[in-house]
Amino acid sequence: MRGRVIAVILVAAFTAFATAAVWSGRTVAQSPFGDPNAEPAPFNPQMAALMSMLIQPRHTKLGLAGKAENWPLAGYMLKELRQGFAVVSKAVPRFKGLPVPDLADAAVTQPLTLLDFAIKLGYQRQFDEAYESLTKGCNACHATTDHPFIVIKVPDASPFPDQDFAPKR
Amino acid sequence: MQFPARCVGRMMGAVLAMTCAFSIAAWAGGAGFGDDDDNSEEEGPSYFGFVRDTNGATVPDAKVTVGVKNRGGIVTRTDLLGTYKVPGFGKEVDPKDVEVSCDKPGYKQLRVVRRSSPSTDPKIPVETECTLQRI
Q: How far does A169 lie from chain B, in Å, by closest CA?
């Protein structure tokens, strides 16, 4: 009899805890994604999101613009990419304890400078070499920050079907 | 009707396991947007740094020795970015007793500078930069 009482108490305690955990802080009609009446929360994307938003698409567009010898667009995307690295370095100054501005500097500053020269002079071969060097820098940084499985490459197709990368003649 | 003591014990274990599992699931739902994984360990600080040449360029594949005074150390090499990383030696090792040196054929060590960090976050490594000069 005593054992049964203990069992019933334990099950009741678990049920109460589970119910409290599920419904704590929720109103009846509230979405699991949040309260529609709450104050907007500051948007604070971290490294993975910033890379997907600010760096990878710009790296891709820079490569596609250079491949098409669209130098005005390549110059624009280079500037955007450079600014992207600056934003990431300010937003996440340390990633896994490592200094992001220093890592970005070591990984991409030199190739970005070489790309700038190639774009301004319109030299396709130098652009390709510098872009390859930039891409290697990305992967070296991923390796340093324990993400070697994220491998960036020179784009072989455009993921932007709504953008024409050919230069305007 | 009575439950034997062993049966009650099993039931308590099951309830405890379910409670833990449920707690984890409820907690996981609070993750923020784009959160990165965090593999921090309960150790002393790790050691990190760049090896550079006198022009400030990073030096890949340099040999770096991170040693504890009178207790030996770890030898590693810089990666493609010219950085090295060594995990913490344990909380009993005072970072002041840890010395870094670097070496590469064709170079000699010019200086070793430890960066002071304003943060006391244990996840932030002790940063030491080593400069090599071409011989």
A: 40
Residue among B12, B23, B123 whose CB faces A21 most closely: B23
**A94 part of contact set with chain B, CB < 8 Å:** yes
Residue B80 contacts A, CB cutoff 8 Å: yes
| CA–CA gap between residue A106 and residue B71 (Å, rounded) | 32
Q: Which chain B residues contact residue A4 at CB under 8 A?
A: 1-3
SS3 of residue B126 by DSSP: strand
Question: At residue A129, does pLDDT exceed 60?
Answer: yes
107-126 in chain A: CB under 8 A from chain B: 107
3-state secondary structure A14-42: HHHHHHHHHHCCCCCCCECCECCCCCCCC
Cα pseudo-dihedral B74, B80, B83, B86, rounded to 10: -30
Q: Is B116 on the interface with A (CB under 8 A)?
A: no
Nearest CB among B15, B48, B79 relative to A143 is that of: B79
Mean pLDDT of the region A92-112: 96
- Domains of chain A plus CATH, in order, are 47-144 (1.20.120)
Strand order in the sheet with B72-77: B72-77, B63-68, B98-103
Gyration radius (Cα) of chain A, Å: 25
C-alpha span between B60 and A107 (Å, rounded): 12
pLDDT tens figures, A22-60: 555 555 567 888 898 999 988 899 999 999 999 999 999
At A83, list the tokens: 């600014």
Whole-angstrom Cα distance, residue B5 to residue B90?
44
pTM of this prediction? 0.74
Of B3, B125, B127, the CB nearest to A3: B3
ipTM above 0.90, yes or no: no
Q: Flag whether residue B1 sits within 8 Å of chain A, measured between CB atoms.
A: yes
* Fold adopted by B47-134: Immunoglobulin-like (2.60.40)
